[in-house]
Specification:
511 residues; mainly alpha; Beta-galactosidase, Chain A, domain 5; 6% strand
């Protein structure tokens, strides 16, 4: 199989330095005063949801909630209001866009109200001691150090990167309006993004998710890098720092690509593909847009094959093969991203799969959309081809074998959910989001699960700690594998098949 492409070859330092636009020369959003492409229904929904929050207190994030993770392992107690704050800011930013350039007479008053709401949200996030989720904070993970984060030693995790990109988009959407309130707001926003996220990323090298030095490379790498790249483009003024950040991001993504199986599979399962393969595409898409070069990297076999993974793993009727941590029901997917991925890699069946996943839902804000995942919401809103795409049927490939990931999916008849579907895996017991499940299989009939993987419960401290395999759903006893002399499978990279092969009738079969 072909080796991974080198992004450093496609986007070398000289190209980055020569072609990276200065701050303000590139933007992913319409200019202030330009009309946004909301349809009437989406505009009304966006404005209504944001108006409902006006005047309400912002969710509090007291120290005692942060301490819950260290005290009793509860992640949700803090993350729920953390999410709610960011969702509210995301809704306010969308409402500001919906009111900006609107034709009705109430638009100026609405714009002023939502500007204040954005101001409050930006200030609230800047006032937080840490943007990191408690489960990821270095100081808290070492229980001997304490219960709370140290603002002098920032951790760079998914939460920090997500917050940085949300604030960066606030800068792009509302920066001029915030300047009209007080120029301090934008300076504060950019300063916090640099101090907490971009500066530490550039200056330090201990991030295990960056190069795999202290942790397995997984979705963290492309997810965080996609956020850092957009935050750099939207908030960093110094040209040398901009180029240095983009260069380091390119090198970091190369570490990720080098660790990927050549078949385009995702050992974290379909749920995390939307933050692994999809985020990788967002990185490439943004690099191409910023630098005006590198489009042909999307023809590389690994990049194309990565786009095909969701097709293979789809059962039908909203069900998905759910090896590793993840639900059997798709949620928080981003079909608009997959649609662009399919079109730009010249794979119309991938784009058709994305359109079929959308169904009759709002193309911009489906019910399970995360409002603070603003880059994806805006990507859907500002893509006229996606909004206008005609309904499509699921392609439903008949069979596929991923030899590197060691995953087999075969359905009775291609292009239909009727009949049997079999999914089976080999792999090993040290995968990302691992379950001890080598040899596990799933069966569905007419798109209805029959023999299942129970999935994963609510994440707690134990989920990613030494106690992980004390959780029943992670053990081989609760997967479709045999016990030998009363012994189940232990974890470890050596726990793998001696050989993983597809049946002869599958060899050479298209994925």
């Amino acid at each position: 199989m072909p080796s991974a492409p080198s992004l450093a070859d496609w986007f070398p330092p000289g190209l980055v330095e020569a072609r990276l636009p200065a701050l303000g020369e590139w933007s992913p959003v319409p200019a202030p005063g330009e009309k946004w492409p909301f349809d009437d229904a989406t505009r009304a929904r966006v404005l209504g949801e944001a108006r409902a929050a006006l005047g309400e207190p912002w969710p509090a994030l007291p120290a005692s909630l942060f301490a819950r993770f260290a005290r009793d392992g509860d992640r949700a107690a803090y993350q729920a209001p953390w999410d709610a704050r960011r969702a509210r800011l995301g809704r306010a930013l969308l409402a500001l866009a919906a009111a900006d350039g609107a034709d009705d007479g109430a638009a100026p008053a609405a714009f002023a109200a939502f500007t204040d709401e954005v101001m409050d949200g930006v200030w609230a996030l800047c006032e937080e001691t840490s943007w990191v989720w408690p489960a990821h904070d270095f100081r808290v993970l070492d229980a001997r150090q304490g219960l709370l984060p140290d603002p002098e030693v920032p951790t760079l995790d998914l939460g920090a990167a997500t917050t940085a990109v949300l604030l960066s988009l606030a800068d792009a959407l509302a920066g001029d309006a915030l300047d009209a309130r007080d120029p301090l707001l934008r300076r504060r926003l950019r300063g916090e993004v640099w101090t907490r996220v971009l500066g530490p990323y550039l200056e330090r090298s201990e991030w295990g998710w960056y190069d795999g030095s202290t942790a397995k490379l997984n979705n963290w790498n492309p997810w965080i890098h996609s956020d850092l790249l957009l935050a750099t483009a939207l908030t960093v003024e110094d040209r040398a720092s901009r180029a240095a950040l983009v260069g380091k991001i390119v090198r970091g993504l190369d570490h990720y690509l080098a660790a990927q199986p050549a078949d385009g599979g995702c050992d974290e399962g379909p749920h995390y593909w939307w933050r692994a393969g999809a985020s990788l595409f967002e990185c490439l898409e943004l690099l191409i847009s910023l630098l005006g070069a590198g489009e042909a990297i999307l023809t590389e076999p690994l990049i194309r094959d990565t786009a095909r993974y969701p097709l293979l793993m789809h059962v039908g009727d909203g069900w998905s093969v759910n090896f590793a941590d993840g639900p059997a029901r798709l949620r928080e997917a981003a079909p608009a991203v997959l649609y662009r991925y399919g079109l730009r890699t010249g794979q119309p069946d991938v784009a058709a799969h994305a359109r079929a996943l959308r169904g009759t839902a709002d193309p911009v804000l489906p019910e399970d959309a995360t409002p603070y995942d603003l880059r994806r919401v805006l990507g859907a809103l500002l893509d006229p081809a996606w909004r206008a795409a005609e309904e499509a049927a699921l392609p439903l490939p008949g069979q596929g074998w991923l030899p590197g990931t060691q995953v087999l999916v075969a359905r009775e008849a291609e292009g239909t959910t009727r009949g049997l579907l079999l999914a089976a895996k080999g792999g090993h017991n040290d995968e990302s989001h691992n379950h001890n499940d080598v040899g596990s299989f799933l069966v569905a009939v007419d798109a209805r699960p029959l023999i299942i993987d129970v999935g994963v419960g609510t994440y707690r401290r134990e989920t990613f700690g030494r106690e992980r395999y004390g959780i029943w759903s992670m053990t081989s006893a609760y997967h479709n594998v045999p016990e030998v002399n009363g012994h189940g499978q232990p974890p470890g990279p050596g726990l793998r098949p001696r050989a993983g092969r597809a049946p002869s009738w599958l060899r050479g079969a298209p994925r």
